Amino acid sequence: MKTWIKIVSGLFLTGIIAAILVYFFVYNKPHPDFEKMDAAYTLTAEDFYKTYVTNKAEAGNKYNGKVIAVTGKLTKTETSDSLTVCVFVFNNGMFGDEGLRCTMLPGYGDQVRKLQPGSEVNLKGFCTGFNDTDVVLDKCSIVKK
Amino acid sequence: MKKLIILIGCMLFLSFTVSAQKFITKTGHIKFFSESPLEKIEAHNRQVNAALDVATGDFVFKVLLKSFEFEKALMQEHFNENYVESDKFPNATFMGKVINIKDVNIGKDGVYDVVVEGKLTIHGVTQQISQKGSFEVKQGKIAVKAKFSILLSDYGIKIPAAVANNISKSVETSIDANLDLFNQTSR
Fold this sequence. Notes:
The complex is a heterodimer. Chain A contains four helices and seven strands. The mean pLDDT of chain A is 92. Chain A has helices at residues 3-27, 45-54, 56-63, 109-113, and strands at 41-44, 67-73, 76-80, 83-93, 96-104, 120-130, 134-142. In chain A, 33% of the residues lie in helices and 39% in strands. Chain B is of the alpha+beta class. In chain B, strand 1 and strand 2 form a beta hairpin. Chain B is elongated. Chain B starts with a helix and ends in a 6-residue tail after the last strand. The relative contact order of chain B is 0.19. Residues 9-19 of chain B have low confidence and may be disordered. Chains A and B meet through strand 4, strand 5, strand 6 and strand 7 of A and strand 1, strand 2, strand 3 and helix 2 of B.
């Protein structure tokens, strides 16, 4: 086989392999598994909420987009369509109860709905920010002590 | 004594009337969809705050941009980092009025066409908008529905030339929010 054919074939093959790798590992890469990720910060639910109320920008820079673990006494759970939300209330405002809202991963729905108000819970989840009424943690899971 | 009882009665009635004017949700749903020759992009946010005062027509939406979920992780990353820059601008908000709120009878079940006007802020840029939608009143609750198009360039969202063919210049936005009566006395 001529050398140039070998080179062209090699480049072609490398290109195809690179395209397959990019497709599976970059374009189709999976979403982060927040349940398995370590928390960047651990604090009480109330301190976490108050940090945002005191200085929204500073708290946002520190916590938004990170996995946060919180502990606190649960005020209530809410269920809406497919979502189960653990709610910690610390204030009242134009949208009613204000505080920390933790949207649970689907696998935790049944477990969370059995929790009684006032239960001490440990959760971690992905912090999406503060909407001027609530701090929101998404993809939450229960942290076992 | 009689006057005092009447006064207290009036105050209780007024406080009930005031609390009965506001409807809220914290689990509203916003979907956006864009289609280009190469790719369809769809994202959902099911944690949208919305409040409506049926006495004044005041209407507010607050949306955390990091709460949008995409099918592909890479799209979600690009949306947050390159387009809406959610670290810098974490919220999108709408503050406005339902200009024909008087046409909506909260006491009567039915579907009412509404027109909403106000300021929409995305990516730190505020635009005056006017959109049509509907309120479905059913058993004292209001289901808000609207569908409209957002032109990305209106909000300073730039599409890199390398992916210009993959991303539509406008996104179709659907709002679906079930508002419950905000009963202050229940808290």
